[in-house]
Design brief:
Layout lengths: L4 E6 L6 E3 L6 E3 L5 H4 L9 E6 L11 H13 L6 E5 L5 H11 E2 L5 E4 L12 H13 L1 E2 L2 E2 L4 E5 L2 E4 L4 E2 L8 E2 L7 E3 L3 E3 L13 E2 L7 E5 L6 H8 L6 E6 L9 H12 L3 E6 L12 H8 L3 E2 L5 H12 L5 H8 L11
Parallel strand pairs: 1-4, 1-5, 5-7, 7-10, 17-18, 18-19, 19-20
Antiparallel strand pairs: 2-3, 6-16, 8-9, 10-11, 11-14, 12-13, 14-15
Helix pairs in contact: 2-3, 3-8, 5-6, 8-9
């Protein structure tokens, strides 16, 4: 049996920084000599390759063009490796993972995003375990077929579907959760995969999409939100879509001035999407009086999508040059496991 191969792509973030154990000084990790800095990798039994952004990006500075850049690099090396590990800062990792799940249409190999809360070399670092296990998952196969042929996030002993993740803590090692979908795997003494939760292997070639439309906004509702402020925000020039993060199961104010501001935006062609600001659960638009007006004005439901998935899915669909009707239709059906059937 030939040795499995994994490409490591470093975009930026704490995991790519090496902390000198004696001085604590931070310096970029040398990916070409990764086994010297993480000697445990020699025992993993995986052939490693590496690519790094010339100028690493803090994840807070990641933009849609950078998602396309990552997808393009994976596409360029797709036939040469069995899996991919993307080293990424944790702050916007859920956005990048969601975007990649849409941009890599027909993906049939693992793409595992991981990072760390502490740099490698730091006492009590989580970086080594996250890196080593992400590589093992990216290389894992049975009968020559990858076990996890999708975009995923690995952090602190748990593997999640990438477009189902949210970052829930700024300091704990357990920084991510998948509130509306089960884990794909748990790392303990053994790696235990939840086979029924993993996407089936998709047949056909990989298509790397490069069209992304960033004219998408997010409007978080709060008690006392001013209708004139909402109207002003929705009047942004060239705005194409807005995700409203609403209360509970998709509810919002019934104030007519507020609703009129939303109606005016829809009449101008702005696509409005209703996503709950709760960590878990789903939108049930129209269940209560406080969301029936949303149904009447044609607002789309995000169902149980994360805000990260809703935003990146809109950017992806709008970037494909589809008609408004097709964008609306495709937004509400699963493309790669990001939403449960409505």
């Amino acid at each position: 049996m030939s040795q499995r191969s994994v490409l490591i792509l470093y975009t930026g973030g704490t995991i790519g920084m090496w902390a000198d154990p004696r001085t604590g000084a931070l310096r970029p990790m040398d990916l070409e000599h990764l086994e010297e800095q993480v000697p445990e990798l020699e025992r993993v039994g995986v052939k490693l390759g590496s690519v790094a952004f010339e100028k690493p990006i803090d994840s807070s500075d990641m933009r849609p063009a950078d998602w396309v850049r990552v997808a393009t690099i994976i596409g360029t090396h797709y036939d040469s490796y069995d899996g991919f590990v993307v080293l990424h800062g944790s702050d916007t990792m859920a956005y990048t993972a969601s975007a990649l799940s849409f941009l890599l249409e027909g993906l049939g190999k693992p793409v595992v995003l991981t990072g760390s809360q502490l740099p490698i070399g730091t006492i009590r670092t989580d970086a080594k375990e996250n890196l080593i296990t992400a590589i093992e998952i990216a290389a894992a196969a049975e009968n020559g077929r990858p076990i996890v042929p999708e975009v995923a996030v690995y952090f602190e002993y748990s593997l999640y579907r990438g477009n189902r993740t949210v970052k829930v803590h700024a300091e704990r090692f357990e920084a991510f959760r998948s509130p509306n979908y089960p884990r794909l795997a748990e790392a303990g003494v053994h790696l235990r995969y939840e086979r029924n939760a993993v996407l089936p292997l998709r047949a056909g070639p990989l298509t790397v999409h490069t069209g992304v439309d960033d004219r998408v906004g997010v409007l978080r509702l709060f008690p006392g939100i001013r209708p004139d402020w909402v109207r002003h925000a929705l009047a942004t020039p060239d705005l194409r879509a807005v995700v409203l993060t609403t209360f509970g199961s998709g509810n919002g104010p019934t104030d007519e001035a507020f609703l009129d501001a939303l109606r005016d935006a829809t009449e101008r062609g702005v696509l409005l999407v209703n996503a709950t600001q709760c960590v878990g659960g789903r939108v049930e638009q129209g269940r209560y009086q406080t969301s029936r007006a949303f149904v009447d004005m044609g607002m789309l439901s995000a169902y149980d999508m994360t805000v990260e998935a809703a935003v990146t899915k809109l950017m992806f669909l709008l970037g494909q040059g589809l008609s408004d009707d097709l964008v609306r239709e495709r937004f509400q059906r699963p493309l790669c496991g990001e939403v449960s059937a409505g």
